[in-house]
Design brief:
The protein is α+β, with helices and mostly antiparallel strands and 289 residues long. It has 15 helices and eight strands. The protein is 50% helix and 15% strand. The chain has a six-stranded antiparallel β-sheet with strand order 1-2-6-5-4-3, with no helix packed on it. α4 packs across α15, α5 runs antiparallel to α12 and α11 packs across α12.
Length: 289
């Protein structure tokens, strides 16, 4: 991989194991808008990014070298060795080999912890379109304008101090359903210090999970998603309906509890279990296994 600044853009070349469509459509990111073939607007870390992929070249428009190094290089996991990860996983069995082949350009993107807490609270018993709508509604109501394109305004995701002003009644009007009271609880606990976000990063994964479980509406699966996508802890294996189906039918061969699925996956896939989960999730969801 190489990169250079060209006018006001960052141009990344010779980038392999990367497909912007597969990454954004893999159920881990919800603040993007498709504006053309392999061309998107992404909102993250209080920035609005226009990105376009042309074969193995990625163009990040109106981006400085500093923003690329401090935000987007990490966001897109550009320093992770996906050739090695995929090779090790592919040696495990035909199932994971096929899942990797199906979406070879998927990467785990590294996102903001607070935004992931609220996003995955919204994800409960929900579909991707409605999660996107919920995150967008919360941002427009409580966030701040960070960019404009004609009549379109883009908003930051509100900080805990901004979102704590929201009431259950206000959130209910945003049509996010029963999750409104969970969001209020999350804001209250984070702002009061009952759950300290900065301290979570210094904790072992199991301790950080215990802290996250203090928030109403955060169960094991939601906590694991937050740990993976918001804290970049790869020693978790988020298990939802899609993952349970594929693990039970193709690996374990009997109906077991979610905890047993996670334990099996972590032992079987080892340190790359989270990567395996992402390939398997995308494969199962797209093929409706």
């Amino acid at each position: 991989m190489n990169y250079r600044q060209e006018s006001n853009n960052i141009v990344i070349t010779n980038l392999t194991h990367f497909d912007i469509d597969e990454i954004l459509d893999s159920g881990q990111c919800f603040r993007y808008e498709r504006i053309g073939e392999k061309e998107y607007i992404i909102v993250a870390y209080k920035k609005v990014l226009k990105v376009k992929q042309e074969n193995d070249t990625i163009i990040l428009y109106s981006t400085t070298l500093y923003e690329y190094q401090s935000i987007w290089r990490k966001y897109f996991s550009l320093d992770d060795d996906y050739a090695k990860i995929k090779s090790i996983l592919a040696d495990k069995d035909e199932v994971i080999r096929e899942a990797i082949s199906y979406a070879a350009g998927v990467r785990i993107i590294k996102q903001d912890l607070w935004e992931m807490i609220i996003t995955f609270i919204l994800s409960q018993n929900n579909n991707i379109k409605r999660i996107q709508q919920g995150v967008k509604a919360i941002s427009e109501k409580y966030g701040e304008v960070i960019g404009e394109d004609g009549d379109v305004k883009y908003y930051s995701f509100p900080s805990p101090k901004l979102l704590v002003k929201a009431t259950v009644e206000e959130l209910r009007r945003l049509k996010i359903g029963f999750r409104d009271k969970y969001i209020v609880d999350a804001c209250t606990k984070v702002v009061s210090g009952q759950v300290e976000l900065k301290r979570l990063f210094d904790m072992p994964t199991h301790e950080a999970k215990v802290e996250l479980l203090k928030i109403k509406g955060v169960g094991n699966k939601v906590a694991d998603c937050i740990l993976l996508f918001g804290m970049h802890r790869y020693e978790v294996f988020p298990t939802d309906t899609w993952i349970k189906k594929i693990m039970v039918s193709l690996y374990i061969k009997k109906d077991v509890k979610v905890d047993e699925i996670s334990k099996f996956a972590l032992e079987y896939f080892g340190e790359y279990a989270s990567y395996a989960q992402q390939y398997l999730f995308h494969y199962a969801r797209k093929n409706r296994l």
